[in-house]
Amino acid sequence: MSNQVSITIDDKKITAPEGQMLLWAALDNDIYIPHLCGDREEQDSSPASCRLCFVEVEGRPAPVPACTLPVTGGLVVNTRSPRVDGLVAAGFALLMSNHRLECRKCPANGNCELQRIAKARRLKLKSQNLPVLDRNLPVDDSAPGIIYDPNKCVLCGRCIRACRKSGNAVLGFTLRGFERVVATFDHRPLGESYCLGCGDCAEACPVGALSKQE
Ligand code: SF4
Ligand code: SF4
Question: What is the chain's mean pLDDT, rounded?
Answer without folding.
Answer: 94
